[in-house]
Amino acid sequence: MPAGKLYLLPVPLGDDANPKDVLPETVARSIEFIDHYIVENEKTARKFIKAILPTKKQPDLKLSVLNKHTLASEHIAFIQPCIEGKNIGLMSEAGCPGVADPGAAIVKLAHEKGIQVVPLVGPSSILLAMMASGMNGQSFAFNGYLPIDKGDKKAALKNFEKLSQEKSQSQIFIETPFRNNRLLDDLLVLLQPSTHLCIAADITLPTELIKTRTVAQWKKEQPDLHNRPAIFIVHRF
Questions:
Q1: Are residues 154 and 107 in the same domain?
Q2: Residues 73 and 98 both lie in one domain
Q3: How high is the mean pLDDT of the chain?
Q4: Do 38 and 91 contact (CB within 8 A), yes or no?
Q5: CA angle 226, 227, 229 (to 5 degrees)
Q6: Is there a single domain that holds both residue 146 and residue 58?
Q7: Distance between CA atoms of 56 and 179, rounded to whole angstroms?
Q8: Chain-centre distance of CA 77, in angstroms?
Q9: Which end of the chain is more exposed for a tag (fewer CB within 10 A), N or C?
């Protein structure tokens, strides 16, 4: 029996986004024939499936939960349906699975087991922010979450600024949303006044904010980013 395929299913970047506005029809068509899913949160995954394909029968869905508490030893059981010839859909909580997302471990395992991986088109906050920033899209680095320790965070930010200038490379990073305002305070203190900073918050949502300004300009008009998913990009030209 041939193995099933692992479909990487993008989801909207926030609850206020209409799935049909930000996702191509191929996502709904794929969900129509997939009953097995690997998700970060069962409740929100079911809500998304119902929103994009109301005709899908919820009792038919078989969901495995993959999050920071999931043991690596459980991963093989998650992809067992693929090994048995069934298709599986992998979802992130927001955006594209496998990018800044625990689903990357499942994708890696699928390749090791010879399972075909099928990525579907959808919104990535990282790429959308980069596209809209006006910074160097030829060379950029995504650095993930910042360190929690104050000293380590300061060193990381100063290093990003230095790398951006030395390599002419845009430096992208994120923070836990409830720490965003504190991070912005740090950025405006630690970075050089002429360094460019792009803030991209609530991407694709009605409250979307995407602006690139110098640090000096941001100091004059500082947005409230509390609990708003945001991408930060630094580039010192």
A1: no
A2: yes
A3: 96
A4: yes
A5: 110
A6: no
A7: 38
A8: 25
A9: N
**Single-letter amino acid code for the residue at 37:** Y
Same domain, 56 and 111: yes
Residue 1 resides in a domain: no
Domain ranges, residue 133: 125-235
Of 228, 187, 235, give the one whose Cα is nearest residue 207: 228
Is the pLDDT at 1 greater than 80? The verdict is no
- Total of domains in the chain: 2
Q: What pLDDT shows up at residue 18?
A: 84
User: Which of 114, 116, 129, 125 lies closest to 8 in space, CA to CA?
Assistant: 116
Q: Does residue 105 lie in a domain region?
A: yes
| Percentage, residues of the chain above pLDDT 90 | 94
Residue 90 and residue 138 in one domain: no
- Give me 46's structure tokens: 């079911």
Q: Does residue 28 lie within any of the structural domains?
A: yes
The one-character DSSP state at 68 is: T
pTM of the model: 0.92
Q: Is residue 112 part of a domain?
A: yes
- Per-residue pLDDT of 114-156, as tens digits, reads 999 999 999 999 999 999 999 999 999 999 999 999 999 999 9
- DSSP letter, residue 147: P
Residue 169: strand, helix, or coil? coil
> What backbone torsions phi and psi does residue 134 show, to the nearest 5 degrees?
80, 10
Shared domain for 113 and 138, answered yes or no, is: no
Q: Do 116 and 61 form a contact (C-beta atoms < 8 A)?
A: no
